[in-house]
Amino acid sequence: MRLMTVDEGKIDESTFNSPFAALETLRKIGGKYYDSLAHRKKLTTDMDGVLIYDDNAVAAARVVAGASAEASYGQASDLNIAAALKNEVPYCWYAPTFFMSKLMNGLPIEINRTVGMHMRLVPGAEEFVDHLGRENNWEITAVTAGHQEAAREVSRRIGIKATVGTQLGFSDDRYDGSIGRFIGGTHKLSAVQRLLRNGSPDSYDGTHIGDSWSDVDALAGIPNSIAFNPGCDLALRNARVSVIGTSLEGLIPLFSDNYQPAMHDLPQAVVVMQNSAGVDLSRILDFSRKVKREDVGSRVEERYGNYAGVEQRIRQSLKQSGINYSATQGIPPIDSSFDDRAKRAYRELTGA
User: Among 66, 149, 259, 274, whose CB has the most other CB atoms within 10 angstroms?
Assistant: First the structure.
């Protein structure tokens, strides 16, 4: 395991060749940053990329309208990131949420529940929740930009009792084309703050685990936050500790001295962020993305098979339940008016 400390314009790196040394290093980091949480025992965690390997919104888009819908969803995501970087809107996942609200209009909410039943778990997700939640009474809440119905089903599978996700509007168990709640960026931070704040404005009873654009504000706003296999530069920079590895079991020693992961579940690298100003983190970010794509991906496929099989099982389950899952309104075009309409919907809902 490699330990990288980023501070004063440089990256200091150490290598621990024995599992014992790696485990002791994790425990020391945990003692420094997370011992104070031991009696409070609260955590919030992202879902897509942290607890599950697949993106539940992308899966829903593909199930109801095929690969073209995934491509359009990606275009909407790019619009969101570009607008956030220009400070036109806070990072809020407004464009892909607007896209999905129109794509899913008229369809049963059972589609997203079924998606959640079949999302492939990240290695160690069940053990992480079981050890901290069931055995040690940590209060773990999933806070995700993913759809509420799918996210709640994933939480049920792994033993998380509370879930806060993006909510598409619905009536009589069918989506109605509206948006009920955004969870992403500043909205995710607000949700996490409500869950972790202990009464004082800047004092918290826990920390947040994330990995991506939708977590950047929460990683920056919650003390000693953790990025698991960070997928973007700002997630890496804003987390106090980044853990790069193939299993969430590698995070448990940060919070618990009485847990010893198997050697293959220990992290490949841990990054402690003191001050990242002026430091090029591209080498670390490239490594993190590679580990997630190749190493985590390999373990996920070994257990669940490839994504095509996941999609097939979702469709089969919906057919067996007699549920029509074909998009009734077609794929919303990402045309010149789309971004304006998406921003207007966001501002009308939030008052931003």
Answer: 149
Residue 109 in tokens = 């909410």
Token pair for 127: 């053990």
Q: Is residue 280 part of a domain?
A: yes
Tell me phi and psi for residue 4, to 5 degrees: -120, 125
Dist CA 324 CA 329 (whole Å):
13
- Do the domain assignments include residue 21? yes
Whether residue 16 contacts residue 22, with contact meaning beta carbons closer than 8 Å, is answered with yes
Residue with tokens 């939030």: 350
Is 167 inside a domain boundary?
A: yes
Instruction: Please work out, in degrees rounded to the nearest 5, the angle formed at the alpha carbon of residue 264 by the alpha carbons of 261 and 265.
Output: 45
Measuring CA to CA, which residue among 183, 162, 182, 181 is closest to residue 43? 162
Q: How many residues does the chain have?
A: 352
CATH number at residue 192: 3.40.50.1000
* Structural domain count, the chain: 1
Q: Over the stretch 192-239, which tens digit does the pLDDT of each residue have?
A: 999 998 877 778 889 999 999 899 999 999 999 999 999 999 999 999
What residue has token string 């049920």? Answer: 156
In the three-class reduction of DSSP (H, G, I as helix; E, B as strand; rest coil), residue 246 is classed as coil
Q: pTM of the entire structure?
A: 0.94
Confidence at residue 96, expressed as pLDDT on a 0 to 100 scale:
94
Over the stretch 89-99, which tens digit does the pLDDT of each residue have?
877 789 999 99
E-only strand ranges, the chain: 2-7, 10-15, 42-45, 139-147, 162-171, 174-181, 206-210, 226-228, 241-244, 269-273
- CA dist list (Å): 164 to 82, 182, 266, 328, 340: 25, 10, 29, 27, 27
- Which residue type, as a one-letter code, is found at position 102? K
Range of the domain at 313: 2-61+97-322
Query: How far is Cα 332 from Cα 100, in angstroms, rounded to an integer?
Result: 9
Please write the tens of the pLDDT for every residue from 22-60: 999 999 999 999 998 878 899 999 999 999 999 999 999
